[in-house]
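Sample pair:
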Amino acid sequence: MERSGGGVHLTERVAEQEALLRVRGVKKVFRSGESDLVLFENLSFEVKRGEMLAIVGESGAGKSTLLHILSALDHASAGDVYCAQLQLNSLSADEAAKFRNREAGFVWQFHYLLPEFTAAENVAMPLLVRGRTWAEAAPEASRWLREVGLEQRAHHRSGELSGGEQQRVALARALITGPKLLLADEPTGDLDRQTAEAVFELIARLHREHQLTSLIATHNLSFARRCHRVLRLERGRVEEIKPESLPA
């Protein structure tokens, strides 16, 4: 089985892969005044290695919170999340930080580049945090800037880059450590239509070429339609919907 669009292809090889992420009965509760606000509960699903999964839903449905839980940035109030055999909700703060640095790359709606540093320095930052020297990290930063088509902008600071270029730098920074997981929270939300299309195409290409497992929270149903699978968060529950049922 194959479906194409935006360079994304679903193949039998992907369909047969084992689950990289397993979510079991996850619940998230926030305290609101004297009462509890249940954002979602009893979420259970799996994400296979190599899949590109879209998460859709209205604003406030919990898409960002769910991504935070899946990347060990936040803890579920109940339930379990496994990445391979690692139980994320049992990790200490230090263990969770190591997991994020080594196994998960995150791209946000806003790029969060450090304005005082160049594009190359921003991309290299996760390796520098690991204790690598600049001499060791710089070639990797250059390679990843080349991957996203920005090698010639390596010495420019973030304020000298366009919105699309900033998001490309953020994507290179997310992937420089060679993570298994790419988690993207509205990665094209601040971009115009043409630039958003280019960034989505880049994400799709990198997903394919680097054999990533990618989860993308998005309001852009056209982009979601081009992913392998789509989960919709609604009224605290999750349901899988057919990508082809979404508008192109």
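Confidence is low (pLDDT under 50) at residues 1-13.
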